[in-house]
Amino acid sequence: MTSHSPLATRHSFTATYRVQLNKQFTLNDARRVVPYLDRLGISHLYCSPILAARPGSTHGYDVVDPTRVNPEIGTLADLRALAGELQARGMGILLDIVPNHMGIGPANAYWEDVLAHGLHSRYAAWFDIDWRAGDNKIVLPVLRAELDAVLARGELSLDLKGKTPRLRYFESSWPVDPATLPEELQLAKFDSIAVADPKIFLSGGGGDGRERLRSMLEAQHYRLCDWKRSTGEINYRRFFDLNDLVAIRQEDPEVFSATHDFVLSLVGEGVVHGLRVDHIDGLLDPLGYLERLREEVERRVPRRDGDEPFPIVVEKILSPGETLREGWPVQGTTGYEFLNDVENLFLDASGYAAIDHAYRAMRRLTNTAFADVARAGKVGVLEGALRADVARLVPAMRALTGTRHSSDATLEAGIVRFIAGLPVYRTYVDGNSPTPHPDDVAVVRRAVENERCRSPEAPAPEVESIGEVVLGHIDGPERLTFVQRLQQTSGPATAKGVEDTALYVYVPLLSRNEVGGGPARPLDDAVGRFHRANTGRACRWPSSLTCVNTHDTKRSADLRARLDVLTECAADWRRGVARWRRLNHRHRSTVKGRLAPDTNTEYVVYQTLIGIWPTPRPGRRADDLPDRAWFDSARTRLEQYMLKAVREAKTRTSWTDPDEAYETALRQFLTAVLAGGDDEPFLTDVARFVSRIAALGNWNALARVVLQMTAPGVPDTYQGDELWNFALVDPDNRRPVDYGRRGELLEGGVLESLRELHPSDERFKLGILQRLLNIRRNRAALFGGGSYSPLEVRGAFAEHLIAFARSTAESHAIVVAPRLLAPLVGHDGTISDWGDTEIVLPKATPRGSFRELFSGAEVRLSDDNASLSASSVLKEMPLAVLLSP
Predict the structure, then answer these.
(1) Cβ(574)–Cβ(358) under 8 Å?
(2) Residues 89-114: tens digit of each pLDDT
């Protein structure tokens, strides 16, 4: 066995590369790409969860056994070999861990034991189950009909063939408590002659057999019911509203140890060099959990003087204006706040306002703002999929407020309204401090005020009472329990109600509708906000991840960069949409008296098609169409994405109540609009439109790469993003990555040939990224811990550049990137002169020779240089990173 000393594996945490491990991309596959990632400039391979998951899992978040490596991705020896390959190059592993939940099913022996033995199971304390709500049973909403109908149809059967007797229902099965088997069947476990077939015993005799089966069912520690009852009756906490992902109780020290010992042993062995904590908001006590995790990590990997802390980052979605709690013992977040701050840089505020106005007029949304749609989404989820979680809060609230409120129904409504009014995912009130954090006080007061303003004629005393409980003005023995459960409910309500509902309903510009973002984020002073966020990150969270694309984003960064250009040609976009709607009206159908697809869905189709359309090739006609193979692939991708989009929106169809007629009409529409030939006016018009915006989108994307790689924080590259990547949400963004081709391109010398490439060439993006990653690794102190100074830009095109400096005592960098380039780019794609635009240099900037990273040009700064001319620095391309010797 290879031994790795933890003290010998202190890797500089400079840049991560995220891979999705599954049976199609295993640990050994990851090991084979390590040399390529090393040449690219990566310091840490950022791995999706590696613990044993449900068979066939494509993502690893449905862990069933936290004590071993998922056999579908490899063995412990394979993991150690991967770590050794990385360590030989001074690289490490950042591992994604899942403390909030586990996958359920026969593969999860812990859950199965609880089903078989109920409260007597040794694992009963592992899972977050409200036993009282189920009369000491686990409510399993898994049947396709009511139990009586299922029994009448003979769809449930008993299987005695394995070690444990099981109830079978189509593809599902559950263990039977052996003590509840009738005597004859218990004998059959040991003597197959006693009862040859349990079906005869249970089903024979018609109604008598069904009653025997029913009696045995009633004796189990779980209750099977119609899946439609999950909204109101399910009594175990889930990951969001997914019934097959059950929450675990990390607040129990024994559960923490049992679920973390294996991963922590990998940390101690030096196999894992950093941790990413999934869904921190789902935990009862996030701070307590993180303190325990940090303590256990440092016990296994003690720090020497001068060592940086072992990297731990949390998946925490920060709402606008929200900051990560400074008392948390982590290096930062996974970076969604950076993603949204940088996105806003490439949006023209007046252009977006025009798009939003046209969209609202098209949909006749006279008095509806995104805030209304978001609130309605949260209310819908709380009254629907999460209703059982809300009901679970009522007894504790009743105990705290006594008879102050008239009924449980009014309390439920108050809880819904309070959560709907919260401007953040959750608060963090715990038992460690006598008073709530000022940030919690502010958001609670805002939630109460939001609801008070919404219905001034009918104030909600329940909402105000809940606010008083959260802030500690109403106290009692149940207070902390109620508040922590409330906090665990508000996060999923926002995730499902806003991210997975409202962001599919209100869609003036899809590039804004990302995790942690949305149409309501302010666009004023986007550059100033970006600088302030970077300044804060440099001071407080220099090792926080910065991402622009992840496995959970709804669209890839390159696709969003192209859609952002629409704000610079809002009038053309409005006219284009109107034209396409006329051309394609004949392809719409009538379903239940309404057009299908509806206006909103059709509008999403056009944005999505613009986004995934292939980049026009230099020298080709503007109206050239892609080949048939692309259209065949695009149709499949669009169908997958649009089906998800309309089901998430829940306006005409949904996951729980699909409208087959509507979905069929949508598929027919997609087939029709993509079926035209070269003479099809719609498709050729789309081609011409993309040809006008593609180059601008590429420059947006390249500017984003430069900013991400040079800003404070640790940049994360999502698998495949080093080449142009116009991808949609899962499963589109998890397609296989051709690392062989990427390796060949690097070996082809993109570092040397950058000046000879067209900016639309995939090698151009790869070359830009490789240069930045390698210089970041070579100057880790500068980009990892150097100061950050926003630079003023003056002149005619000042609003089209963003600039900043990174500095240490020994090293300096000046970064210049473009934004909103439409006024400067000619019809041939070249950028006109920058006129008198200049970048003002701070007095502390050292004088002497600087080298420009992409062109290799030398730039000399003399004592007389108070500024840099944009025309001279950006002579060859609108990107520049100047480095001191």
Answers:
(1) yes
(2) 999 999 999 999 999 999 999 999 99
Identify the burial level of 465 via C-beta atoms within 10 angstroms of its C-beta, where 0-12 means exposed, 13-18 middle and 19 or more buried. buried
Q: Which amino acid is at 378?
A: K
Q: What is the length of the chain?
A: 885
Dihedral sign, Cα of residue 27, residue 30, residue 31, residue 32: positive
Instruction: Count helices and strands (H / E) in the chain.
Output: 32, 29
Model pLDDT for residues 390-405, shown as the tens digit of each residue: 999 999 998 898 766 6
Q: What is the pLDDT of residue 85?
A: 97
Distance CA 643, CA 647 (A): 6
Alpha helices in 652-738 (DSSP H): 660-673, 681-710
Distance between CA atoms of residues 241 and 261, nearest Å: 28
Q: Which 3 state secondary structure label does DSSP give 194? A: coil
Nearest to 128 by CA among 2, 261, 245, 257: 245
**Residue type at position 824:** L
Contacts of residue 589, defined as CB under 8 A and 6 or more positions apart, other chains included, come to 595, 596, 665, 668, 669
From CA 783, how far away is CA 92, in angstroms rounded? 19
Task: Compute how many other C-beta atoms are within 10 angstroms of the C-beta atom of residue 739.
Answer: 18
At position 505, the amino acid (one-letter code) is V
Dihedral sign, Cα of residue 758, residue 763, residue 768, residue 771: negative
Q: How far apart are the C-alpha atoms of 294 and 302, rounded to whole Å?
A: 11
Over pLDDT 70: what percentage of the chain?
94
| Distance (Å, whole) CA 152 – CA 146 | 10
Among 689, 678, 670, 673, CA closest to 627 = 678
Task: Tell me if 447 sits within 8 A of 414, measured CB to CB.
Answer: no
DSSP three-state, residue 139 = strand
From 139, 135, 524, select the one nearest 344 (Cα to Cα): 524
Q: How far apart are CA 334 and CA 312, in angstroms?
A: 10
